Amino acid sequence: MKKFVILFSLLLSVSAAAFADELPPPKNTDPVAGTLTIVLDKEAKEPKLLISQITLEELYNGSESAGLASVSRTQALFGGLLLSISFVIGGVWLARRRVRSAGVAAGLIFTFATGTVLISANVGPPAAYRSINSGLFSEGMQNQKYAGGPIKVQVSTEIADGARLIIPLAKEGSDSKKKTDE
Amino acid sequence: MQEVTRIPKDISREVGARLLLVAGSVGFCAAAAIAIAGFPLQASILTIFLFAGVHNFMEFRYFLAKMPLVWGRSAVYYSVAITGTVFLTVGYLYLYFFGGNWLWSIVSWQTSVSAWNSMFVLWVGILFWLRARQKQRADGMPAMAIAFFAAGLAWFVPAYWSLALVYVHPLIAFWFLERQIRRSRREWLRAYHLFLATITLFIIGLWAALASRPDLSNETALFWRIIQHAGGGILAGVSTHFLVATHVFLETLHYAAWIVLIPLVDRRAIPWRFSSIPLFANKRGYPKMVAFGVAVSALLVVILWAGFSIDYATTRDIYFAFAIAHVLAEFPFLIKLT
Description:
The complex is a heterodimer of chains A (182) and B (338).
Chain A: H1 2-20, E1 36-41, E2 48-52, H2 53-62, H3 65-69, H4 73-97, H5 102-122, H6 140-144, E3 152-156, E4 163-168, H7 174-181
Parallel strand pairs in A: 1-4, 2-3
Antiparallel strand pairs in A: 2-4
Chain B: H1 2-38, H2 40-66, H3 75-98, H4 106-134, H5 141-156, H6 158-184, H7 189-210, H8 221-229, H9 240-265, H10 278-281, H11 287-310, H12 312-322, H13 324-337
Helix pairs in contact in B: 1-2, 1-7, 1-9, 2-9, 2-11, 3-4, 3-13, 4-5, 4-6, 4-13, 5-6, 6-7, 6-9, 6-13, 7-9, 11-12
């Protein structure tokens, strides 16, 4: 028993020390205002986002808006599971009731239509806009309005303030060819 | 001949009572909306100070009158109701008092809040399902489907979901009142529905008057708490003047419903009528326990007033943490009335 108490106390003290090393979560305050510079660079091999140390600290200490807006994997998993169960129960109920009225049919069509819109909204942009490259500054982007892709994020001491986005400058003709292929 | 003259008199008296109910309620709403729109923060402090504890006492007294001595076929229903209320209250208090420290990341905090919200809504769904099983022509499956859907949403938008609960809770009292009027004063139902419709107009009026107003001052910790409670940190872009005023307006109506209207409709809810409490009046009841419970809840009202007088902000925090118990307790009794 004595050994157990000692071991338990030791474990507790180690746990406390481990937790003490954890950083506190960001507080709930307004997002940090900053500046973003976009640089088209011939020498760059990959898109890169440089963030100044000061801005990062400001973001870390000041903004929770990203945390509120984003959905973690656990949230998505449980949320999706519960919604699926809901649709299954609802479907079984409808099947059991053998409801064929126009109102219910209209409701179902509306649900599917809404779902389709949501799914369509989640479809990614064309290939040309699925990477960060200089093609984003083309006329086509005016209609697309959205583009994204993998990017390296790096905290930099080279820049004084804000953030700098470095984009590889594509070789002449390569972007337009890609779009023609689409 | 006497009968012929008495009936029109009774009818006119009844119509007069209904008109008085609508006019009185609408007049009260108008006065409350104007006062609250002018001084939302002050109104929040004052209404909670005066009526929060009293309305809890009235709710407890109402639930006592509604609790049957023998559960019979409802044994499972009440067991699930009480277990759920206790379990969810303890979980909520844990999150409230221990969830805010720095050991919790935003993700773990959101996950815990979503889990609590899901358990809460699934518990309500189960209560609806159990209630439907007791009624011959009811089907509990739609309730479960809706409960799972709402639980799913709680994971995707936990902050908005919790805020929705803050605004929906005051309206629960009106649902109670509706069910009670249906049972005991059915002739008032149309007048009551007319009154309910006017509440929407008052909220539209508040929006028209306050939506473009600048945000309220959050210079003190108490003001900041009141604004956050009304959704100031979540609904960015909406004037906090409007949010706080709307929340206080709905809370005021909630208090008025429990303290004045429900006892007016159901005489068994009048506090001093102990004879209407089955647990007290029945030979096999528990009169001492009931009297003790009522005395303790009355004492808590006084303690709450004292606490508000000494340290309003701290007492407010503690009150709203423990107040979740009464929010949860409302659901089993409400579902039982359906």
